[in-house]
Amino acid sequence: MAAASAHPPGIAVSKKQLVFLRNAPRLFDLEDLLRSSAEVLGKGTYGIAYKAALEESLVVAVKRLKNVKMPEKEFAEKIKAISAMEHPNLVPLRAYYYSREEKFLVYDYMPLGSLSSLLHGNRGSPSPLKWETRIKIALEAARGIECIHSTSPSASHGNIKSSNVLITSSYRARVSEHGLSHLAPSSQNLTPEADVYSFGVLLLELVTGKAPAHGGRFVNLPRWVEETLIRGEGTRELFDEELTRFRSPEEEMLMLLQVGLDCTSLNPDHRPEMSSVVAKIEEIRHWAARKKDKLKEKEAPLF
Ligand SMILES: Nc1ncnc2c1ncn2[C@@H]1O[C@H](COP(=O)(O)OP(=O)(O)OP(=O)(O)O)[C@@H](O)[C@H]1O
Predict the structure, then answer these.
(1) DSSP for residue 125
(2) Is the Cβ atom of 164 under 6 angstroms away from ligand 1?
(3) What is the pTM of this model?
(4) How many Cα atoms within 13 Å fall on the side-chain side of residue 239?
(5) Which of 82, 176, 198 to mutate to test the pocket of ligand 1 (most atoms within 8 A of CB)?
(6) How do residues 32-69 score in pLDDT, each as one tens digit?
(7) Are 202 and 119 contacting, i.e. CB atoms less than 8 angstroms apart?
(8) Widest CA span of the chain, in angstroms?
């Protein structure tokens, strides 16, 4: 990653090479990666993420891990398990690098960035996220999490939030960072029920357009939505104004809001499983499609 742009400061690599996973094509090696032009994407829980452009059409995201102290064999086994989980709604892990001083992971780069930046990054832009795109993103992210949960009864992601739902150029959603909570020591409560809660917050965020955390301040979105519903002042205040501006379907928005509230039940035993969250979102979409068809039938000329 070239010094002129954003060479990760003090990156120390030994003679070791990148290890490519599954059948990922070996389109570059460590030298290419270190020479590429890099840009910091952000600092996260597990380290700094970089965008590395190897060639015009070959761009990857590199996550430089901090606080990973485990021996190489254990690290390699965990990474192998992570990369074995292939699903269209999970960000593919392509390669890793392990040495005593440095550990990093190489992922596909997702050109549209995160759901969080699409929702909150550029408010008032001429092309806000439409309702149909939002509910499709919700469904795809739910499917990605469902895939993680399906691997064992206690399997969890551990860090579900809108900045970990990344968007491809064709607006497909992919959940990132799966497996990372098992690499770094964490004091968090890692359970599938906790993921369901976090996903519920993400659904509320999609409908209300409100960020659960902003500039170090936290908004309790489930409580805010419940209180606003109880006050019964109509739905205007509840929905993202970018949705109301484009006359989005209120019934569907309310239905998704209800799924979000179910997921954020304070009692973890009352939260639905991810498979049933997926089914509920699919149902809303089918209901909407049937409604549209009926409307078309009504409007179609008889002859
Ligand atoms: N594969 C990727 N493609 C495109 N952008 C990415 C990719 N991976 C991460 N990013 C972006 O890089 C930034 C930093 O990501 P990172 O996951 O390290 O931190 P975070 O999501 O802000 O916090 P956390 O580590 O707690 O999840 C985020 O804006 C994220 O959307």
Answers:
(1) -
(2) yes
(3) 0.90
(4) 22
(5) 176
(6) 888 888 899 999 888 899 999 988 788 999 999 988 88
(7) no
(8) 76
User: Distance between CA atoms of 273 and 114, rounded to whole angstroms?
Assistant: 24
The residue whose CA has the least distance to atom 11 of ligand 1 is 41
CB of residue 42 inside a 6 A radius of ligand 1? yes
Query: What is the chain's mean pLDDT, rounded?
Result: 88
Other residues' Cβ atoms within 10 Å of the Cβ of residue 74: 10
CATH 3.30.200.20 boundaries in the chain: 19-108
Contacts of 63 (CB under 8 A, 6+ apart): 44, 46, 47, 48, 49, 50, 104, 105, 107, 180
- Rounded to the nearest angstrom, the gap between the alpha carbon of residue 188 and the centroid of all alpha carbons in its chain is 18
* CATH class (in words) of the domain with range 19-108: alpha beta
CATH 1.10.510.10 domain span(s) along the chain = 115-299
Do 42 and 82 meet the contact criterion of CB atoms below 8 Å apart?
A: no
Q: Is 63 marked within a binding site?
A: yes
Q: Which CATH architecture has domain 115-299?
A: Orthogonal Bundle (1.10)
